[in-house]
Every structure is written in structure tokens, then in C-alpha cells.
Amino acid sequence: MSGAVAVAKNLSLPSGIEIFYREAGDAFKPTILLLHGFPSSSHQFRNLLALLAVSYHVVAPDLPGFGFTVVPPALDYTYTFGSLAKTTAEFLDALKISKFSVYVFDYGAPTAFRIALDRPEAISAIVSQNGNAYAEGLQDFWNPIRELWRNDTPELRKQLTDALFSPGTTKSQYTNGVTSLELLQQIPPETYTLDQALLERPGQTDIQLSFFKDYETNVKLYPAIQEYFRKSGVPILAIWGKNDDIFVFDGARAFAKDVKDFRLVALDTGHFALETHAEVIAKEMVKWLKEHQIC
Predict the structure, then answer these.
(1) Which CA distances in Å does 69 have to 15, 22, 99?
(2) pLDDT band at 3 (very low <50, low <70, confident <90, very high)
(3) pLDDT tens for each residue of 52-91
(4) Active-site residue list
(5) DSSP 3-state of 69
(6) Please, is 182 exposed, middle or buried when counting C-beta atoms within 10 Å of its C-beta (0-12, 13-18, 19+)?
(7) φ, ψ for residue 169 (rounded to 5)?
(8) Tens of pLDDT along 104-129?
(9) How far apart are CA 134 and CA 119, in angstroms?
């Protein structure tokens, strides 16, 4: 599958936020929105953008709090998943994108699913790459974060900061679950190095702890999201790094309970599956989307 060039752009929203995003492909073709997760940015889609742009119009914004999107301090922005969904919807409106398919990963999943609850007619199809919507997908990794939901103390915040925002932890999110030296060597060090550099900017610790604290609201929304799956009939392709210990494979299987038009593809890799399987993911996506007449 040959690729096309992705372009880096900035867009000033009416709210005052300046969104950094990457765009590729013909704007007259069907749009795919790519939503990243923690601790990354649209940089994680640098390879997928080019691969999908042969057949689609593709946009990938940096969510507020991540990458190179700028949130002026004067806005007093609230770093919650509700805010991420609202800003992403504002971004789509500014680009006049009213109908799209969406690729969700990690934090991108609750962001997109909140948009879906508000605009169910806007989403043609969902590709979930380790983007969770079920309690089954949250296992041991989440235990310290669940404690934050129950008992938010300065001591616990310090423990989480030390455990979750260190260079070793950032790198491990890319390497854990990758099953061979050959695949590990495909992961360029600038991925986790860039993520870590951006995590270490002033104010980032509080921003990211706010998201971890607010993740509980996503779990409380799971029943409504699952009802949306049942009622809307939206087709879902779950293409999952099956060795992920952040959003485990049981979360991928769980979609089958509520999604009538569901396909599951298991990849023998970890959380950041695009670093080892971008071409496989792109081929599966394009084939599946075309089977659903999204072309």
C-alpha cells in the first residue's frame, strides 16, 4: 500500500484554542478522524495518515493537554474528557466535517464516544485500536488510578506521578507486549522521547492527573455508550494489540455483546500497535470500510 504526504497545520477555534493537527488526502473523499491517547499526540499517526490518505481524507488533531495544541492560560480550561469531546466537536465544526468515520485509541475512545452520544448521526463507522468501552478492559494497571477516584490525596498524587510519568514508564507503554526483537527495533526512540519531553513541560503533571481523575466519568458512561452501540447499529472494527496491559484484550471481546456489525482482529503486539503493525492496520481498515461502502 503506497502512501501520501501528511501536512501539519494549525487552526484557531472560536473558543480561543489553537489546534495543531495533521491532515492528508483529498477533502472530497470520506473523512476519517484519528484520535490519539496518553501520553502521545497526532505524531502516533504519522505512518497511518499516509497509508489511509490514498483512499480517504484523514485528520488527526492533538487533543488539549497533548502535543502542540495551545490552550491559552486565560481560558482556564478544564481538563476533562467532557472538555476534550467539546473541543473536538468544535474542531470538526470549524473544518465543516459533519459525517466521518473515527479511529479511536486510548483516550481517543471516550472522547469520540461522548461525541457519538451527542451526535449519533455523525459517525459512519468506528475503528477501535485498544480504545476501551467496557469494564472488562480495565484490569490491574488501573488499580492505583481507581484509588485516586476513591481517595484523592497529595501523597497518592505523588506516587502516581512517580509511577506513571517517568521516562521508563513512557517507554514501556511502547515496548510492553511487543513479542520479538525484530518488532522492538521497529519502534523509533523519538516516539517515547517526544512524549516524555512534552510530559515534562510546566503544568503537565496537574493536567494529566486531572485526566486520570476524570477517567472515572468515562466508566460511569459505559452503559450509555453500550446502549448507543445497540441502538445506532454503528459498525465497529476492533483491531487490538492483544498483549496490552493497559486496555486488555477482554475489553476488545466485550464489544460483541452490544455491536451487531462487529469484527475483531487480534494483533500479537502491545498498546501502541501502530508502531509495529501500521501497514496491517491500514489494510484491515481500508478493506473493512470499503465492505461497508465507505469509499
Answers:
(1) 13, 11, 23
(2) low
(3) 999 999 999 999 999 999 999 999 999 999 999 999 999 9
(4) 271
(5) coil
(6) exposed
(7) -65, -40
(8) 999 999 999 999 999 999 999 999 99
(9) 21
Contact between 56 and 32 (Cβ < 8 Å): yes
Is the alpha carbon torsion for 174, 177, 180, 181 positive or negative? positive
Q: What is the CB-side half-sphere exposure of residue 8 using CA atoms within 13 A?
A: 10
Quote the cell numbers at residue 121: 448521526
- % of the chain at pLDDT higher than 90: 98
Is-contact 41 68, C-beta < 8 A? yes
3-class DSSP assignment, residue 295? coil
* Cβ partners under 8 Å of residue 98, min gap 6: 92, 122
CB atoms under 10 Å from CB of 80, counted, come to 16
pLDDT-derived band at 5 (thresholds 50, 70, 90) equals confident
- Residue 230's pLDDT is what? 98
Average confidence (pLDDT) over 96-104: 98
Spatial distance between the Cα atoms of 210 and 204, rounded to a whole number of angstroms: 10
Question: Which amino acid is present at 110?
Answer: P
- The pLDDT mean for the chain works out to 97
Cα radius of gyration (the chain): 18
d(CA 179, CA 269): 6
The kind and range of the H/E element at 125 are strand 123-128
- DSSP characters for 149-193? HH---HHHHHHHHHHHSSHHHHHHHHHTT---HHHHTTS-HHHHH
- C-alpha 177: how far from chain center: 18
Q: What does the longest C-alpha to C-alpha distance in the chain come to?
A: 53
